[in-house]
């Protein structure tokens, strides 16, 4: 009898854990006024738009006239540096299965800007000597200053987990009504976006149930260790783990990854 009671309590506890896991579901109500897209929270009613409670980054959502506004407000110096290196990608989708199909990265991150230079990103992630060369140190320093100059598009086709990356000017995504901004004078990164919910944007998203994700996706390094074996390491976990192979090549404290998701209910 005691065993039966124990297992009943255990199953009940597990069911609670399962039901509490996963993205937070939030109902978003229509607001009366539009917002300026300037990378500042000054026009937001932050008490009613906050999606999460966090010490290192807070997210907000606001809807007016079938237009979704979202805001990412970075609070941590460590996370700010990681975003400036690896970029912050925003995913939107009406489908859970295809929620990572299309993402917009802004700032792009200095690591990602290497993708525009033929062979540079591959060398950066596989050659232990690449980041030690003076010309590449200078290159990475320059790219760090250009992370707000472009917008990164991330696409995964036909259920393929492999991502393809492209870089465009802001005005190219504004053609479909998407606006994006960051307050570059601010000490820590901010990100504000305006997305029409009429299916016309690169996201193709409409009103209803929307999967919203904010992700930090650092590079995967495949650098030879001292025993000549290939190391395939990528920082994992919400707050990241130390990547020792990468640390030996560059004096970065660690690479962070992040995967924050919300399910927005918009009528």
Describe the 3D structure.
- This protein is α+β, with helices and mostly antiparallel strands and 267 residues long.
- The chain has eight helices and 13 strands.
- Strands 1-13-10-4-5-6-7 form a seven-stranded mixed sheet. Strands 2-3-9-8 form a four-stranded antiparallel sheet. A two-stranded antiparallel sheet has the order 11-12.
- The longest helix has 19 residues, at 2-20.
- Residues 1-20 and 226-253 have low confidence and may be disordered.
Give the termini distance in whole angstroms.
Answer: 49 Å
Counted by DSSP, the helix tally is 8
Radius of gyration: 20 Å
H/E element sequence:
HEHEEHEEHHHEEHEEEEEHE
Give the low-pLDDT segments: 1-20, 226-253
What is the general shape? globular
Helix content: 10-25%
Order of strands, widest sheet: 1-13-10-4-5-6-7
The chain-level structural class is alpha+beta
Extended strand count? 13
Largest pleated sheet: 7 strands, mixed
**Residues in β-strands, percent:** 25-35%
* Average pLDDT, all residues: 84
Please summarize what this structure is.
With 267 residues, the chain is α+β, with helices and mostly antiparallel strands. It is built from eight helices and 13 strands.
Describe the structure using short key phrases.
267 residues; seven-stranded mixed sheet; four-stranded antiparallel sheet; 28% strand; globular; disordered N terminus
Topology summary:
Elements (H helix, E strand, L loop, with lengths): L1 H19 L3 E5 L17 H4 L7 E8 L2 E8 L2 H10 L2 E5 L8 E4 L4 H4 L6 H7 L7 H11 L6 E5 L8 E5 L1 H5 L4 E3 L8 E7 L11 E9 L4 E4 L5 E4 L10 H6 L8 E9 L1
Parallel strand pairs: 1-13
Antiparallel strand pairs: 2-3, 3-9, 4-5, 4-10, 5-6, 6-7, 8-9, 10-13, 11-12
